[in-house]
Amino acid sequence: MGGALVALWLASAVAAAIESIPLFPKLMQVVGLGYTVWFSSRHLLFKENRDELAAKIKELKRQVLGLNDDGKAPDPSGQLVLCQLELHSPSFVGGLRVHPLTIYSKK
């Protein structure tokens, strides 16, 4: 958890340093506007491009969610199945309550 706080602090410091450079924030706004115009003209202007983008998004969603071609989750038979979760007594770590989990599985 301490590493995450250090990373957050470092990212904040880098962002503040970039903001202090004259004209850099405006340059980034122009770059963002240019990318928005390019993306819109490339993917949103014509129907065939919109359909292509929709197909790419649908395929990505299918891959991320692990769905079959018919849009349904695969049958878990023969795969590792989580069948029981047991919560143990909570402990305190760094002022946060942590509930350790024991996971049992069967084939």
From TrEMBL:
<feature type="signal peptide">
    <location>
        <begin position="1"/>
        <end position="16"/>
    </location>
</feature>
<keyword id="KW-0175">Coiled coil</keyword>
<protein>
    <recommendedName>
        <fullName>Cyanobacterial aminoacyl-tRNA synthetase CAAD domain-containing protein</fullName>
    </recommendedName>
</protein>
<dbReference type="Pfam" id="PF14159">
    <property type="entry name" value="CAAD"/>
</dbReference>
<feature type="domain" description="Cyanobacterial aminoacyl-tRNA synthetase CAAD">
    <location>
        <begin position="3"/>
        <end position="66"/>
    </location>
</feature>
<keyword id="KW-0732">Signal</keyword>
<dbReference type="InterPro" id="IPR025564">
    <property type="entry name" value="CAAD_dom"/>
</dbReference>
<feature type="coiled-coil region">
    <location>
        <begin position="43"/>
        <end position="70"/>
    </location>
</feature>
<dbReference type="GO" id="GO:0009535">
    <property type="term" value="C:chloroplast thylakoid membrane"/>
</dbReference>
<dbReference type="InterPro" id="IPR033344">
    <property type="entry name" value="CURT1"/>
</dbReference>
